[in-house]
Amino acid sequence: MSNASPRWFTSSYSNNGGTCVEVATNLAASHGTVPVRDSKVVGGPVLDAPA
Known about the structure:
Number of helices: 1
Low-confidence stretches: none
Oligomer: single chain
Structural class: mainly beta
Helix content: under 10%
Mean pLDDT: 84
Radius of gyration: 11 Å
Number of strands: 4
Distance between the termini: 17 Å
Number of domains: 1
Order of helices and strands: EEHEE
Shape: globular
């Protein structure tokens, strides 16, 4: 198991109106998922989407 931390960045599909989604694609190869979160609630829940 890897101890890698997600490197978050704002999705290019997010607009600049405050409705932003952040993704961490650096975990796709090692975990088989892409974590997704709301950029306004960084401490909130994270959805792990299949890679």
